[in-house]
Each structure stands twice: as structure tokens, then as C-alpha cells.
Design goal:
Four copies of one chain form a homotetramer.
Chain A: H1 21-45, H2 48-55, H3 59-65, H4 69-80, H5 93-109, H6 111-124, H7 130-154, H8 164-181, H9 188-202
Chain D binds a DNA duplex (31 and 31 nucleotides) through α1, α2 and α3.
Chain lengths: ~210, ~210, ~210, ~210
DNA sequence: TGATAAGCGAGACGGTACGTCTCGTCTTCCG
DNA sequence: CGGAAGACGAGACGTACCGTCTCGCTTATCA
């Protein structure tokens, strides 16, 4: 499985290249500029030229640190989303998970949710960027749900035999499907219904 | 909700422009050429220039009939997938649905599944193409599952109160999620496990 | 030499095709529409589609009557310029010719002079249109100067041996040269100087 | 007046953009390719795509160096004509000028004269290209005649008060007029007659 | 401290597809 | 059956973004 821990600069294996003090400055500037651009105009606005111009880092240097513009954007997006979405904690495992589904649904429907969808889409055509999206964004999201699920297991509300990866896919896959195809709007009501049905299958022991 | 019936020539509302006998020839030629290109090199190969050249239809004409190359590809893909995936019929509703999930999982992992993912991704950045993908491809897939689910309801294996759209999202959303992020391979075993868990929540009365 | 007489409908040899009352209506509508377009936006505005739309005559029909859009424009332009530029008549041949040069210079510098230049240029790349420009526009201009020159000959101010075609070329060729290359503005002073020098060579007997 | 000196790379004001060693290579390749195309098929053959393909320089780069294909062609044409047409030197000013007129007339009637006419015509609809044609082609031609005229002045055959620009226009404007409208062929006899008449006005003191 | 090499900014460049435009032909159907 | 309407093929246009490259300047490390 892909690593879920936040890699430090220079310690993320295949995902980074140069090292040292200059490198740190470059990373910071590029990511900051990219975050601005993503917020202003989504992925389409985060062209390499735009990032280079705004960050003051040259295109050549960017390509020495990242394999593609999508990779840059994925990492920048992961960092800007890191502090968002604090975990719910109602004392009830099922309620916590339901609330999390609702929050993610709301996020998908927001402007940054649009960026999320663009990034997910871009990774399809850019295999080199996919690991960046997984490590710097998805890992954090999965970790959050893993925490909630572990609580449920600890409380005896869920079976320790159920693979948390399946839990994640079943709870959030449907939301992503809807977000991408656009065949339905993402509403709180819908998110709750989805969570209820999914959790019925996942946490049947709690019924 | 978006229509699920296959629109006839000239009868698909916003999705087509010119009409008449000449139009029919153009549609046939363009779609045939696009299908070939999709099979040969996926969405990236289906450039408007390539489609124009192979079909003998000029670019300008293509743009009169479709809003973008993604829309052309979506319709072509829908047509080429129309006859695939016959419905399973084991006599057992739950087995049928499980088998369908397995088949779709296999499809997603195939070359044409790659095209599916590319199309889904392309629609994120091309809102005009999204309805084409929904009407000409997704609708057919949803219809198939709707049939299976209806059987289950008729047999008393499922509640008529459950919205089939939710069923579809829960059964296939997770597969799509995995297909897009690539964080796991799509295996038969995994598909079965997913189906089992999801159906536990959806068809609890059958337990 | 090319004919200088205004050809009647159906009587201008290679320059026209259909005949009859319907033809007359079509000619009138097309030329009127084209004249409007030329005045509004010059030659670039007189596209075949625009002419067809404004005149109510179909493109196919236009191409039955003229070999190209430039030919249409040339004829339309000739007709709209037919009444302009009355001949000067000061009683002095040399003054008349000088005045004519000045007037033509002014015309070249006007908006319609721009159209003249565009038409002249278009005929370079459209041999089929050239005769239309010569017959329907240039012939009329040359005829005017021929009249002036004949007066001079009759008065004994010019030699009957001098070919009037050479006179025309020498008097107006320089203006056209300047108009096309744009290396100088066309001013009255310049036109007069040009006429003076040229007429010194052409009408030496008058010195 | 516009400059008549051949501008060096990077020193031609509005007429060029990038500079440096890479730029030199691009200019050389593009102009060489364009010259070939002009000789093979005239201006219509010198499309930007064709120039790009043959020169190995991308379209985008061409558009960074020149405002339009006409500008490229004008410069290429100027360079390929630079060595042509050595000055006549018979010892007699009037004969030299007459000979020059004859040579230019012959040139206009040649295949490259056709290109000249196409270029002149194209500049009418492409104001951005006009300065290129003036600087890189016309300037050289005017310079040649200026030399001949200066000789005449030095020998006392012509008045120093006569503006050489007028001389040029009167000697060559008529040829251009005929070349463009095509109302007469360009023959040696005609050129001589034209030169004789024009020079009668210009060099009357020599009679 | 000064040399040497690597990192870097600036931006030119080739490549490739885009979506648009106008021409002149061809088809369809109406009066 | 002539003509209006307009679909159509052809092919050039000029633009956008990608990712690579070349060029000097700057910075960091080692002689």
C-alpha cells in the first residue's frame, strides 16, 4: 500500500529531487503561488508559466522538483487542505462517520471540491502525478476516517475484521462518482441517506 | 433526472444540431472513426484532427454537430459499449448483482476501462461533454443495474423504498474511486468483497 | 485590348452567365447588398455569406452569375463609382488633367480608395475577377481621362501620336504605387507636383 | 521617410522581437525555407504551416519573430532579391535609367515578379507586413535608382531640385499599375516608351 | 579568499492540438 | 425546375500550454 505518512522534505522517496536550503525556499514559493492560483481559477489557472511567474521560480527549476504541473498542484492542494476538516467527535461512532460523510459531501460541492475533482481527473492522464495526489492529499483524508473507524472498533461498534480501506471506498466512492458525473447534486440529505445505507452494511452489528 | 432512453437522431434535445440524411451519414462516419481511434490509443488519440481525417468529415462540420471532441468521444464510446456486458441471470438476485459488480470491475481494469476513466476525467473539465457521457454511456449502464434491482424487488429480496440511484452509486462508486486514484488494483476478490459489504447494507432483508 | 464600353446584361462575353428577368432582379439585389457591405467594412466585409444573407440570393446562385466574390465586389464597386468624379473643365487642358490627378489622389486616400486598393490587390490572386475590375471600374476611369486627353489633342496641346494608355499609366501609376506601398501619404501638393512633372514629359509641346 | 538601410539583427526597431544567437539560427532557417516556398509556389505556397515544417521552426516561434506570414515572406523576398539586378552603367545617365526600367519591367513579368505583385497585394490587407516589404525589399530597389539618379545629377543631366522619390514613382509606378491590373503585357518596347516619355518630363534639360 | 561547480531565473524553443474562419461546391426542399 | 437555405470539405489561421533547452548570474563549497 502507498504510504500514508506525511513525507518530510527530501524524505518522500520517488516524490522529490534536490535537497538543501535553496530547495526549501523553492518548495515554499512554488506551493504558495500554486495555492493562490488554485483558489483563484482552479487547476486550469495553475499553468506552469503562471506558477513560475508568480513564484519567481523558473520553469526549469520547477521541473527539477516535480514531474509535472499536476504533481505540483496535487502537493499544493494537499498542503492547503491539511488543516481543514477537523474530525467530528459526538461520542457516537456511527454519528461521527455520518457527519464525516456529510462534511466531505459539502466539501465536494464547494469551489475547492471542484479543484479536487479536477485534480482527480488530471491524475488519470498523468500517472506521474497520481502518487503526489495520493500521498499529499488522499492519505490525509484516509487517515482521518481511519481514526474514526478505529474508534468504532475500539467501542465494539465495528468489526476489526473489516478492512478500513473498504470502509473508505464505500463511504466516499459514491460521493465522488456523483461529483464527477454530475448526474445529481450533492446535498446533505443525500449524503446522510448514503451514509446510512452504507453503514448498515458496514456496521450491521450496531443495529 | 437526465433521460435514460437512447435519443433518436434529431430527437436528443440539446445534444445535437443539424438534422437530415446528410447528418446521418456524418454521425455514422464520425462515430465509427472515433471508435477506432479510442480502441487504438484511448482518448488522447481521438483528437479532432485525427477524427476528421479518418472519417472524411471536416473539423468545422464536427464542431457543428458536437460541442467538443470529448462529446464526440463520449457518444462514440457509448455506442461501442452498448452491446457489451449482457445481464447476469443466475436466478438469485444477490448473486446477479455481485456478478455485475465483478464484471464492471473487470471492465474498469481493461483497456476500454481506461478509456472510460479518461472520459470521466475529461468531462470534469468539459461541462458541455458531460451530458453526452451521461446520456450515451452512463444511462445504459444504470439501466442495466436498474433491471437487476427491479428483479430483486419483484422477488422480495429488496425493499421497493430503496432508491435505485443510491444502489448504483454505492455498488459502483467505490470501484470508480479505486480506478481513478489507482491506490489499489481492481481484482475479482476485491470486487466481491465490496459487493458483499454493500449489499449487506442494501439488501439486509435477505440475510 | 480590353473593352472599355459598359457591357449590357448578358452582353459582356465571358463576364456573365444567365439572362432574363429573374437574372436582372438577382443582379440588382446582389450588387446593392455588396455595395452596402463594401461601404460598411471594405472588401473583407463582403464575404459571400454576407452578400447572400443580405441580398436574399443564395450562394449557389451567386456563383452561377459570378466566378468569385472578388468579381462580385469589383462589379458592385464599379457601379457605385460610376457617377462619381465628374470631369473637370477649366478650359485649359493641362489644368484639367492636373485637377483630375488631384481628385484621383484624394479618392485614393478616402475610405472608398481603400476599397479600390483592396480590390486591386484581390485581383492579383484572383485572375477570374480581374476582368470584372477592368471592365466595370477601370474602364470608366480610363474613359474619363481619354476624354480629357482628346480635348488636349483637339486643342493642339498634345500630340495625337501619344498613346492615351501611356498617359493614363504615367499620370496615375505613381499614385497607385504610393497608395499600395504606403511609403508616402497622398497629398494635394504631391499630386500636383507629380502631375506637373509627368505632363512636362507628356505635353512638352505646350511649354 | 522610412529607413533604407538594411537593419542588422536586433537593430531594426519595430520589425523584430527576440535577439541573440538562437534567434539568428531561427531567422536564417525560416527565411531560407520561405524563399524556397516562394520560388516553388509563390506567396500562396508560403503558408505558416509550410514554413514551420520546412524550416523546423515552430509556428509559435515564427509568430514571436514576425507579425504575420506576409511579413516573413516580404523579408525573405527582400533577401533573395538583394543580389539581383546589378546597376546598368553605360556612361549615359538617360540610357542607364531606361535600361533600369526595362530590367524592372522584365522582372515584373517573370515568376518572381508575380511574387512581387502578390506581396504588394498582400500588404494592402496586412498593414503589419507593409513595413517589412518597404524596408527589406522596396528600400533596396529605391536605393539603386537613387544611385543612378545621383549620377545624372552629378553629370548635370538632371536637376538636383527634382525629388528622387518622385522620379522613382513616375518611372516605376506605371509598370506596377500594368502589372497589377493586367490590362497590358509588360514588353521591352512598352517599357522603353514609358521610360522615354517619363524621362522627357524628368530630364528635360537633356533634350 | 578565490576558484569551481552546481543551482537557478529568464525565457526562447519545438511540438501538438485547439477552435475558428472563409471559400466554393453540393444537397435538399420549397414555390 | 430555378432558386433559397445552408450543410459540407478543404485547409490556413493564430493561440495556448506543455516540457526541454540554452544562457548567464548567483550561491555554496572546496582548494
Amino acid at each position: 500500500m502507498w504510504s500514508t505518512k506525511e513525507p518530510g522534505a527530501g524524505g518522500d522517496g520517488i516524490l522529490s529531487h534536490p535537497t538543501g536550503p535553496r530547495s526549501d525556499r523553492i518548495h515554499a514559493q512554488v506551493l504558495a503561488a500554486t495555492q493562490e492560483l488554485l483558489d483563484e481559477g482552479g487547476l486550469p489557472a495553475a499553468t506552469v508559466d503562471a506558477i513560475a511567474q508568480r513564484s519567481g521560480v523558473s520553469k526549469a527549476t520547477i521541473y527539477k522538483h516535480w514531474p509535472s504541473r499536476t504533481a505540483v498542484a496535487a502537493k499544493a492542494f494537499g498542503h492547503m487542505m491539511a488543516e481543514e476538516l477537523p474530525l467530528p467527535d459526538t461520542g457516537n461512532s456511527r454519528d461521527d462517520l455520518t457527519e464525516q460523510v456529510r462534511r466531505v459531501s459539502t466539501f465536494y460541492a464547494s469551489p475547492r471540491g471542484e479543484v479536487f475533482a479536477q485534480l482527480l481527473a488530471a491524475c488519470v492522464d498523468d500517472p506521474a502525478a497520481a502518487p503526489y495526489f495520493r500521498v499529499y492529499f488522499l492519505a490525509g483524508r484516509r487517515e482521518a476516517v481511519t481514526t474514526l473507524w478505529q474508534r468504532a472498533v475500539d467501542r465494539g461498534d465495528a468489526s476489526p475484521d473489516t478492512d478500513v480501506d473498504d470502509v473508505i471506498d464505500i463511504l466516499f466512492g459514491p460521493l465522488i462518482f456523483r461529483r464527477l458525473t454530475g448526474h445529481y447534486d450533492l446535498t446533505d440529505e443525500h449524503a446522510e441517506k448514503l451514509a446510512r445505507t452504507a453503514l448498515d452494511g458496514l456496521m450491521r452489528s450496531t443495529v
